[in-house]
Design goal:
Layout lengths: L1 H11 L2 E6 L2 H6 L15 H28 L4 E4 L5 E9 L2 E11 L17 H23 L9 H14 L7 H8 L3 H12 L3 H19 L4 H7 L5 H12 L3 H8 L4
Antiparallel strand pairs: 1-4, 2-3, 3-4
Length: 264
């Protein structure tokens, strides 16, 4: 997986991220191997823009682009509110939008603002090169989404990964046991047993482990504010997040970031 993504980056000279919109397939197919850092816009340009235009970025990533992709079946170029262009590759499986690949960012015009000055200018020939790569990238993602990670849906690994995928995808909303039970189609009591059988932990312990893992990843690989990371991990307040993080790591979020920051 990482070798393929690195090859695409080398071939285009651009970064890419892949957002999966099908949690169940993400857990049970090869797409589940896509790492967190490959699912986020981590370019310096994006991180700078998000500091002052977070709401506009959320509107673009979570509403505008998925809406366009649901209607548009072919790759297309899109220029965001901040002036950065990307190639957008919608990936549809069984009639549903299952993933979006973003390749960029770049300028398509000689015109530039202070914000876009650092972005490379992509000439028409280079844009055509990107479009030529798009079908291969789409086919690769479709293959991942169609390839089972486990032999049987009844296997413990399948159930464990389904549970973990659901919790990861819904961490920001602070999922509870009844929500997981509804997702699995089981009773709350049976769901609690399945969680312990497959993970060796209680529901709360497993959720907290995933919260801590996501918090560590975001602190190490992004410049998100601590308040935003707290929200991403399902905490109602930064104060509660600070207490939780220090209890489990011995560090405050700020201390952990300063000592373990990864440049990606």
């Amino acid at each position: 997986m990482q070798q393929t993504l690195s090859a695409i980056r080398r071939s285009t000279g651009l970064d890419l991220c892949i957002k999966i919109f099908d949690p169940k397939r993400s857990a049970t197919s090869g797409a589940g191997l896509i790492e967190l850092k490959d699912q986020l816009h981590l370019s310096e340009f994006c991180l700078d823009v998000k500091e002052s235009q977070k709401d506009a970025c959320i509107e673009c990533d979570l509403r505008l682009i998925p809406g366009l992709c649901s209607r548009e079946r072919r790759p297309f170029f899109h220029t965001c509110h901040a002036g950065a262009s990307e190639l957008i590759i919608p990936v549809h499986l069984e009639g549903q939008l299952s993933a979006i690949v973003y390749i960029g960012q770049f300028r398509v015009s000689q015109k530039q603002s202070d914000q876009t000055r650092s972005l490379p200018l992509l000439k028409p020939s280079a844009q055509n090169h990107l479009l030529g790569l798009a079908p291969m990238i789409e086919a690769y993602l479709l293959q991942l989404l169609r390839t089972p990670r486990f032999a049987k849906e009844t296997s413990p690994d399948y159930r464990k990964e389904t549970i973990i995928s659901f919790l990861k995808q819904s961490l920001s909303s602070n999922p509870d046991l009844p929500a997981l039970a509804g997702h699995l189609g089981l009773s709350v009591t049976r769901t609690a047993h399945v969680v312990r059988e497959t993970s060796g932990q209680s529901f709360v312990a497993l959720r907290d482990e995933l919260r801590l893992q996501r918090a560590r990843d975001l602190l190490q690989t992004t410049y998100f504010k601590v308040s935003q990371i707290a929200s991403e991990c399902g905490f109602s307040s930064s104060h509660y997040f600070h207490r939780f993080f220090r209890k489990h790591t011995g560090f405050s979020p700020g201390e952990f970031r300063s000592q373990h920051r990864l440049e990606v």
